């Protein structure tokens, strides 16, 4: 009877611990299931999206091509979905926040913009943070005597994505005779931030890094863009670029001197030159089908 009683105590202790564990697990699981859903349905479509594959293009089928560089000004109304929200919200992040997180995770590779825009020299996330972080000092005053400074506190501020208000786009326009279409492929995106002086006045633009667009497409395909017209029709960043739902202006076309439009034209002349390049693309395609 003593042995039987001892075994019963062990069995009861094990059952008690097991029941306590299962009860805790059930409570935790029920809390997750019973949490309020921010919407009327579960959003499962976007996280499973993949980029639309490019049509294969043979070298022999491309009878004409031209490289174009553009600037997308995120301050324009049509481009604001790339810039907002400045601070991440539930389910919404702006383009540069997504890119910076992907660079930190290693999903997207950043390239040094000071060498070239041909994606030759990779940059790590640590290099970007170190290069573009700012260091400042703040005085710490004596609480009993505000006129006495006890010490100076060093404050390091990382890269602020809110300062990135422009992005450069490098793309190739080409005519594919096999499909008889004029097509365009984006090759790269460069982040451009505003640079301010000590008084907070804007005085320059700075290229931060390039990313290779085809490598970034899987990341863009699973991140949604705010649709101001219909919240149920959710588009992704990859779809926005694919459908070219953005405003931009040309600042360079490929040329023998490898120079920007701003290097040989300024003011209204630069705007007219950019418009000329855009019209040439349109007229080339139009003339192909003119009878």
Order of helices and strands: HEHHEEHEEEEEHEEHEH
Structural class: alpha+beta
Mean of pLDDT: 85
Name the helicity range: 25-40%
Number of helices: 7
What is the number of E strands? Answer: 11
Low-confidence stretches: 24-33
Assess the beta-strand content as a share of residues: 25-35%
**Rg value:** 28 Å
Largest sheet: 7 strands, antiparallel
What form results from the Cα inertia axes?
extended
The largest beta-sheet arranges its strands as: 3-2-8-7-6-1-11
First-to-last CA distance: 107 Å
Account of the 3D structure:
The protein is α+β, with helices and mostly antiparallel strands. The chain has a domain at 57-130 and 163-288. 31% of the residues lie in helices and 28% in strands. The chain contains seven helices and eleven strands. Strands 3-2-8-7-6-1-11 form a seven-stranded antiparallel sheet. Strands 4-5 form a two-stranded antiparallel ribbon.
Characteristic key phrases:
7 helices; 11 strands; two-stranded antiparallel sheet; 291 residues; seven-stranded antiparallel sheet
Helices and strands, with pairings:
Blueprint: H1 2-33, E1 62-73, H2 80-83, H3 95-105, E2 110-111, E3 122-123, H4 125-132, E4 134-141, E5 149-157, E6 164-176, E7 181-196, E8 202-212, H5 213-220, E9 224-225, E10 235-236, H6 237-242, E11 249-253, H7 267-288
Antiparallel strand pairs: 1-6, 1-11, 2-3, 2-8, 4-5, 6-7, 7-8, 9-10
Briefly summarize what is shown.
With about 290 residues, the chain is of the alpha+beta class. Helix content is about 30%, strand content about 30%. Strand 4 and strand 5 (about 150-155) form a beta hairpin.
């Amino acid at each position: 009877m003593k042995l039987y009683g001892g075994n019963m105590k062990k069995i009861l202790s094990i059952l008690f611990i097991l029941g306590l564990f299962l009860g805790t697990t059930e409570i935790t699981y029920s809390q997750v299931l019973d949490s309020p859903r921010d919407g009327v349905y579960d959003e499962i479509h976007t996280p499973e999206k993949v980029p639309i594959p490019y049509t294969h293009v043979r070298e022999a089928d491309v009878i004409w091509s031209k490289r174009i560089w553009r600037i997308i000004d995120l301050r324009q109304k049509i481009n604001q979905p790339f810039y907002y929200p400045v601070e991440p919200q539930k389910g919404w992040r702006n383009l540069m926040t997504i890119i910076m997180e992907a660079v930190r995770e290693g999903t997207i590779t950043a390239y040094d913009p000071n060498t070239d825009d041909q994606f030759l020299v990779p940059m790590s996330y640590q290099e970007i943070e170190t290069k573009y972080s700012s260091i400042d000092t703040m005085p710490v005053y004596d609480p009993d005597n505000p006129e006495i400074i006890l010490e100076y506190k060093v404050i390091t501020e990382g890269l602020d994505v809110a300062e990135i208000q422009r992005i450069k786009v490098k793309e190739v326009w080409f005519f594919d005779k096999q499909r008889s279409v004029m097509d365009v492929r984006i090759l790269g995106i460069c982040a451009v931030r505003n640079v301010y002086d000590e008084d907070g006045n804007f005085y320059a633009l700075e290229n931060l890094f390039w990313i290779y667009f085809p490598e970034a497409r899987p990341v863009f395909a699973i991140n949604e863009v705010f649709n101001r017209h219909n919240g149920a029709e959710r588009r992704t960043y990859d779809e926005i670029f694919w459908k070219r739902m953005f405003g931009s202006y040309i600042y360079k076309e490929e040329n023998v001197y490898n120079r920007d439009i701003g290097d040989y034209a300024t003011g209204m002349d630069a705007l007219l030159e950019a418009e000329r390049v855009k019209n040439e693309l349109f007229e080339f395609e139009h003339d192909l089908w003119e009878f």
